[in-house]
Amino acid sequence: MELSVKNEEKGTLVTVTGRMDAVSSPEFEKELARLIDEGNINFVVDLAGLDYISSSGLRSILVTAKKLKGKNGQILLASLQAVVKEVFEISGFSAIIPIHESVEEAMAAL
Amino acid sequence: MHFMKSLKLAAIIENLDRFISFVRTCSEEYGFEGKKAMEIELAVEEALVNVFSYAYPEEEGQVEMCCTLNDGKKFVIEICDEGIPFDALSRSDPDTTADVGDREIGGLGIFFIKKVADEVRYSRNGDMNVLTIVFLLAD
Fold it and tell me: Complex ipTM, two decimals?
């Protein structure tokens, strides 16, 4: 898993590529926690390059979403691919974490 | 002829990548690709993480994964450990409609296995927990 972070006018754009599994997901959670501690509360996460996610990946996104809810912030996801999209649908996460077709659309919704 | 391949390693998260590479090699060889191949990796990860987390609360133990292709189309994955008896399949499915604040993750991994696999079953064979996950190759 690779993470990159860009600060944009309306919020923080986090790009995740590779795999979010039980080994790599804690890294995502830690990095997002660090960004939240620095005062960032509005996030768009670009998942166009994410090939795979397991329940561990969902857990780290959920933990982040819960943290942000307590600070009136939000996390929006963009550009989910095949199996990643399926995992969000099966788990019901697509109903609780906002998902957008593109980063542009998500940024506009912040 | 059923040619079985297996990998047995310590039941620790540090070995997840090796197990996933192993099952990926088998899937490719058996002709699974794309989304289906990812679903196989998902089921295997969720099953293994469960073993890593719960099978050996006191001491260290091992987990073995056996892969076979039956009848040229049935990919059978067996995950065996000698830990405490634990039938993960007996847990009730998680509430997938709860809101962010109330949402819990427990049980979601096993739920994924049930959803993506064509068949999944648990048995206790002597001192072993055996989780069998089956994926069918599309015609």
Answer: 0.92
